[in-house]
UniProtKB/TrEMBL annotation:
Signal peptide: 1-23
Superkingdom as given in the UniProt entry: Eukaryota
Record key words, sorted: Signal
Name the UniProt record assigns to this protein: Putative cupredoxin
Keyword Endoplasmic reticulum: no
One GO CC term on file: plasma membrane
GO molecular function, one term: electron transfer activity
Amino acid sequence: MARVTTALVVIAFSVVFPSMVLATEYVVGDDLGWDGTANYQAWADDHAFHVGDVLSVYDSGNDALTLSVAGTYYFLCGYHCDTLQQTFFIVVG
């Protein structure tokens, strides 16, 4: 009986909160990370972002942003950033 109840809770949670179940964590710049040599707009254009996804800038785990609502997110850097790092945007569907 406990297994059936647990299974029903998991199924209900997946239906009610699908963005949490299907969320993906992205490291900005993929293997290049945040080092100034990547074209971050090109990186963003290659991904399809969804509500609940997480963007991480560094591997520390303290530099992450959960995309909590649909819309356009703009990222600007004005301190210690190379030209390609200065601006990029993503659209969350």
